[in-house]
Amino acid sequence: MFMKRQLPIAIAATIGFLTLFGWFVDEPNIKAFVDDDATQWFDILASFAMFLGALNLLKMQAVKVIKQQKGWPYAALAIAGFTFSFTAGFILLGSYNVEISQYDDPAKVATVLAAEINMDEKSAENVLIAMPEGDTYIIDTPYFTKKGADNVVSEINAAGGTANMRATEWGAHISTRGSLFNWMFRFIFTPLSATMFALLAFFVASASYRAFKIRNFEATLLLISGIIIMLGRVPIGGSISAWFILYIVVLAIGAGVNTWKRNRTITLATVGGGLLAVTMAGFIMGWPVDQPAIFYLPVLQDWIYNNPNVAGARAIMIGIGLGIFATSIRYILGIEKSYIGE
């Protein structure tokens, strides 16, 4: 019982207190623990957590495929994709370069090189001739398999050149452009991610449509702000005159007065007087598109984005910070025991 309950709580409380007070105590050993050791521990634990999460994902998808539950073909595709990416990252190096150090007859070597670099033979020959003496020419795109690179090396050597195969170091093969893993990331993962974000736009549009329905004052404020932000961020918003917005404001004020007073005469006087005042001011100022600036959509959306939006975002971040602090204190004091299964 002690090993399963009290010991984990004691470890969590001790490390939590050390990490917390490391930000307030000017002691070199504690600061080194917080800045270096604790961070490395977190990285190690996070790596194992990711590994266990991947295994759990495979287990769930495998069960779905074996039992042929609803959507099992997608589960099979997920397993295949995981297997391919794992193999490309940890088993197959997938990055072998061919280097040409010298040649006897550039025309013969160019017949082999042209097909590998997608050039005609004359252009490939010019590439070889332009190579400074003592330098090596490396074919830019690496080969996925060692056998493929060896075949090209053999063909170049048979044509009178001197070539050798060079394998990319493990770890660097992930970011090497043209490697198997990099190819998978650029041509499979990236397009799929773009597709997901493209679909997200439709979900956002659907959610916006539901949120923008005018039900109360808050929903109306959200609708107006959303319209201003969307129009102010696109080129057409800069072409909409501030005076047009002023006319809309006058009509909105008239609608508000009508709702409040329920008197046609007062409403007509408010709307008529407002329209007349805006028209006279427009003639006096010469109808500039961006004046008055407060009613110009790009300026208005910029103010909304940098003031109410930032204030709301800061309030959310403060709430998140307080939530993290409260949860951390619960873990440190042993009140929260979900990490030991309670």
Structural class: mainly alpha
Helix content: over 70%
Largest sheet: 3 strands, antiparallel
Number of helices: 13
Oligomer category: single chain
Q: What is the general shape?
A: extended
Order of SSEs, N→C? Answer: HHHEHHEHEHHHHHHH
Radius of gyration: 34 Å
Mean pLDDT: 86
Order of strands in the sheet with most strands: 2-1-3
What fraction of residues sit in β-strands?
under 5%
Total count of strands: 3
Task: Please describe what this structure looks like.
This protein is mainly α and 342 residues long. Among the domains are: 14-90, no CATH class; 94-167, 2-Layer Sandwich (Ribosomal Protein L30, Chain: A), CATH 3.30.1390; 308-340. It has 13 helices and three strands. The chain has helices spanning 2-21, 28-66, 72-91, 106-116, 121-129, 146-158, 180-211, 217-232, 235-239, 242-261, 264-285, 297-306, 308-332; strands spanning 96-103, 137-138, 161-167. It has a three-stranded antiparallel beta sheet with strand order 2-1-3, covered by helices on one side. Helix 4 runs antiparallel to helix 6, helix 8 crosses helix 12 (297-306) and helix 12 (297-306) runs parallel beside helix 13. The two termini are 13 Å apart.
